[in-house]
Amino acid sequence: MENVLKEGYVTRARVAELETRLTAADWRVIELLATVDYATTNQIERACAEGTTPLARARVTRRRLRRLTDLGVLFRLDRPVGGIGGGSEAGVFTLERAGWRLVELRGGSVPRRVRRPEERGLAFLRHSLTVTEHFVALTERCRELPDAELLAWTGEPACHRHFTYRSRSVRLSPDALVEVRRGAELVTSFLEVDGGTESLPTLLAKVTGYLRYARLHPRETPQVVFSFTSPRRAQLLRERLPQTAVSEGLRPDVATRLFTLGDVATAVAACVGEREAPR
């Protein structure tokens, strides 16, 4: 097996020894962080729920995270990230090199270069945790629905799409490509999580890219779900969708059908094929 984690190399013997000490519940945490990269204590608890009561689940989660961190499988960030999670026991976790080696051992996808967690900036972490919140909320919603199953969550950069439009190379860069089975239906979505930092022209440029992709690939283009923390930003973009479609030579209703704009609950509902977010 080719080793992709060259710097700070973790020996095979160490990885093999770690694997013997991991439970199925430990692997759920590892697989979660291999999927979303960063998560808070609360997000991990909700995604990898164990125990019959909220208090029991919280205790089990904190104990498991301390153990995996002590083993060198996880890394806990010292820097607090406000806005998501909270409380004295809240933390932000990601995989350490040994954790990525374990993922690699199981044939999972590993970044070409695993960066030290502290190399990440605060803005990146906030955005990453917001994206993780969508994954966790989607996981919870699929548990609630008897006919829903989260089949795949493909993050960046694997979810990006490259295509040529009028001899120019174009890249779509959603935050995730989501596949949910809802009964006999497969619901596929590009997910764009807005952090409130991009201008309206930048958002419209993204919309234009998706419209052009849909025009070239009408049968394979999933729905596009934009999630906003600000209703005002969602409304500003919604008002411009018909005009943007027309400027691309498309009917206004094409944009209405292709795009869903709203908050986290609206985004999750769209990803599972619900017309409206549950109340």
Q: State the helicity in percent bands.
A: 40-55%
Rg, alpha carbons: 20 Å
Give the oligomeric state.
single chain
The rounded distance between the terminal residues' Cα atoms is: 49 Å
Give the uncertain stretches in residue-range form.
1-7
Report strand %.
15-25%
Average predicted local confidence, pLDDT = 89
What is the CATH class of the largest domain?
Answer: Alpha Beta
Q: Give a quick account of the main beta sheet: strands, pairing sense, barrel closure.
A: 5 strands, mixed
At CATH level 3, the topology of the largest domain is Trna Endonuclease, Chain: A, domain 1
DSSP helical segment count: 10
SSE string, helix = H, strand = E?
A: HHEHHEEHHEEEEEHEHHEH
Which architecture of the largest domain per CATH?
3-Layer(aba) Sandwich
Describe the structure.
The chain has 279 residues and is an alpha+beta fold. It has two domains: 12-120, Arc Repressor Mutant, subunit A; 129-271, Trna Endonuclease, Chain: A, domain 1, CATH 3.40.1350. Helices cover 45% and strands 19% of the residues. The protein contains ten helices and ten strands. The protein has a five-stranded mixed β-sheet, with helices on both faces. A three-stranded antiparallel β-sheet has the order 1-3-2. The protein has a two-stranded antiparallel sheet with strand order 5-6. Strand 7 (176-182) and strand 8 (185-193) form a beta hairpin. The radius of gyration is 20 Å and the shape is globular. The relative contact order is 0.10.
How would you briefly describe this protein structure?
With 279 residues, the protein is α+β, with helices and mostly antiparallel strands. Helix 3 packs across helix 4.
